[in-house]
Write a structure and sequence with these properties.
Chain A is built from three helices and two strands, in the order ααββα. With 124 residues, chain A is mostly helical. Chain A has one domain. Chain A has a two-stranded antiparallel ribbon. Chain A is rod-shaped, with a radius of gyration of 37 Å. The mean pLDDT of chain A is 76. Chain B is of the alpha+beta class and 569 residues long. Chain B has two domains: 165 residues, Penicillin-binding protein 2a (Domain 2) (Alpha-Beta Complex), CATH 3.90.1310.10; 332 residues, DD-peptidase/beta-lactamase superfamily (Beta-lactamase, 3-Layer(aba) Sandwich), CATH 3.40.710.10. Chain B is built from 18 helices and 21 strands. In chain B, helix 1 packs across helix 2. The radius of gyration of chain B is 35 Å and the shape is elongated. The chains are: A mainly alpha (124), B alpha+beta (569). At the A-B interface, helix 1, helix 2 and helix 3 of A face strand 3, strand 7, helix 9 and helix 18 of B.
Amino acid sequence: MRLNKFLPVVFSVTLFSLLYVYQQSEIYRLAYVGQKRQTTLEDLHNQNCILKYNIEKNGSLTQIGDKLSGKSSDFEMPASYRTMKMYYTGENLSLRERGQPKETLLSRIFGVKSEAQAKTVSPR
Amino acid sequence: MYISNYRPRCEAVFIFFLVFLLFCVARLFYIQLFRSNYLAGIAKKQHSLYVELEPTRGTIYDRNLKPQAFNIPVDSVYISPNEIKDKDKEAIIAKLVPILNVDTAYLRDRINRKKSFIWLARKITPEQSVAIKKLNTRGIGLIKESRRSYPNGYLASHIVGFAGMDNSGQEGLELSCDSFLKGVAGWALFLRDARQKKLDLWERMVLPKDGYDLVLTIDEVIQYIAERELDKAFKTYHAKGGSIVVMDPHTGAILALASRPTFDLNIRSNISKDLIRDRAITDMFEPGSVFKIVTASAALEEKKVTEEDKFFCENGQYRVGSHILHDHTSHGWLTFREVVEQSSNIGTVKVAQILGPDTVYKYIKLFGFGTKTGIDLPGEISGSTKPPRAWSKISIAAIPIGQEVGVTAIQLASAISVVANGGQLMKPYLIKEIRDKQGEVIEEFGPRLVNKVISLDTSNRLKKILTGVVEEGTGKMAKMEGFTAAGKTGTGQKLEPNGTYSHSKFFASFIGFAPAEDPMLTIVVCLDEPHPYYGGVVAAPVFKSVAGDVIKYIRSSQESREAVAYNAH
């Protein structure tokens, strides 16, 4: 084989070999980068799961109910005679006219009753 | 001459290198032809890592898609004793004991084993995990695992059940639906680098199939109301146990199922079997007077009596064979309606005598007693009934009033629903849907009719009689403001170990539905050995509290949905 043919062949083979090696090393380099990002993604996902659990747990009816009815709890649904509604007229506060006391869904669910009071029964 | 002197040496060197070359070629041949598989295997082991891919266990939701059980990622801590120097071991033990809350002896045993990997504690809390990371000690590592967690603690504990350390169901729906929830594990062959570190490249992968999600029929709020009231009654009346079942009478969907004593699903170490069992389906008891709805239904359906037919109640004592039957309060003449309202045992037995054992037994079976309801929970028992051929001479005075027969609370709920829904025995069920992780419904479950028990006319007539029980009879403490209720009280004597009826141990119950004219729900309240023990005194008020709050909740939810739909348009 003549030198003017041999050299280009060797050059091409060497070039493609180097490209191949570069490609393989890039694959591994990107794998490392992907691994890092995957780890970050997994950490975020795990934190999300734990936060979701904590939100559900702290917002659960059992947690709220136990806190409301706990012996050390100072919570008490105020009776209507203890509450006043005020509104701002622009200059000062004025007392809003007191309407019928409403029993809210929340107080029914958690069984927190206000004190006995006379009220009209309106069967539905 | 010069060349001729060195020729032998050149030939010798040439031969040496030729032999060396031939040796290398032979060696190559040997490696390539005879050792290639073996060496390729070693290389594969070094380059590849087989990893099992754990599927995500399905989530359990209530009917409003509020999660009751799901998995969260937690750390498990391991130790590599080979990497720890002997002189450091005691110091490490001293640091780990307060974090992990384990015995020093346990840790010492683990750390001194001649192994490269040993678990110290599985699925620890996030706080423990942070404390161990701060130690930054060589030889101690953390691996991520998933732990089944229950955000509502003890709520619906007997329905949901729990999964064990390996995420397999052990009780409740976690057990009975384990095949849907657990999914199918996958696997992958990951590549490793020269330092044996796993890369995010795989040669082959079979993706895991995540478990399906369950949507239950229970409503978290209704469940909470039922458990709240059962807690109060359980403590107030010093009961040994109790259960409440709230059911949609038209479909059989269970809206709440509470049992006491109970346990926190997240704290299960050293838990006794007594706490785990769901008394509504595993405990059989003699129901007492609540069973009279069977006798009454049979009498009306067979057209043997009308509401105004009169029965003489023997002023409180009635001999049947060798047995003297008593009424709680002496009565003279009562109409059939009043027999039920006042819960007269003598009046009921006289009605049963008209019907005969075969007819009474026929209706016992039609109402579903003596057979499992088929509810989706493990451990249900069928109760106990006996066919007429096995009845004694006094059975006619016992079975129609709820003695010599064993029932469960769930059977009672199905039975009273028959009266509420127009005469159909519906199968109680807990699972509404099975969904995949994308929300696609895989399987849907709906109402299932078991059999027709009584006609619509009989059901309506019995509804009016049972409304009278609450308005005028033994169930006055179940009367509610704003809604009508219908039901029956029961006070069943328990059996002593010697087989006689106890005079101090009773099973108090109330079964009913509300509103009476258009029932939205049936409720069964059962208390085991309460003090006092009358069903009308201890169980009826619980029914009233639960029914009142639940009906208001359901109506306000319906109004909210209507308002949202209206605003959306």
